[in-house]
């Protein structure tokens, strides 16, 4: 799932001063090399070298948008495209090797990882931060899988404070009118 998460996090987030890592051929190749290295370490597979030519950048960004759509209300509008993979059977285990070149090879790895995650029940733990100015993808390691912020200190505290302030603005305090005045009633000193 690390490659799927890395793909989602390659998007630029101006509010967090994060550039789009798929904007240029050089940046995209550096991102992909690092992501495939991490993927290889986490899966125990040999890191594969995939070269992404400049003409594949729009397809990579489209793949990112499509996969990002899986984690929103528009999931049905972003069905996966067909990809190729080579299956091998060795020592009693069936495994896959992504197939293709450039963006097609990246799509093959991403879709196959997402497929495996959906079959093991871990795809639902990949989430995007609910802070609208963040949107970072994260893997929810909480026991019950209910985290909504990628980082509680930065995004969670900020959003919870905003929500608390909004609730206080919307519901006036007990015994006060919406304008902060005490309601009219009998005078407690005179009883009238």
UniProtKB/TrEMBL annotation:
Q: Which Pfam families match?
A: zf-CGNR (PF11706)
> Which parts of the sequence belong to the Zinc finger CGNR domain?
125-168
Q: What domain of life does the UniProt record list for this protein's source?
A: Bacteria
Bias kind Basic and acidic residues: ranges: 169-184
Region: Disordered; residue ranges are 160-192
State the PANTHER family in the record: BLL6575 PROTEIN
This protein is called what? Answer: Zinc finger CGNR domain-containing protein
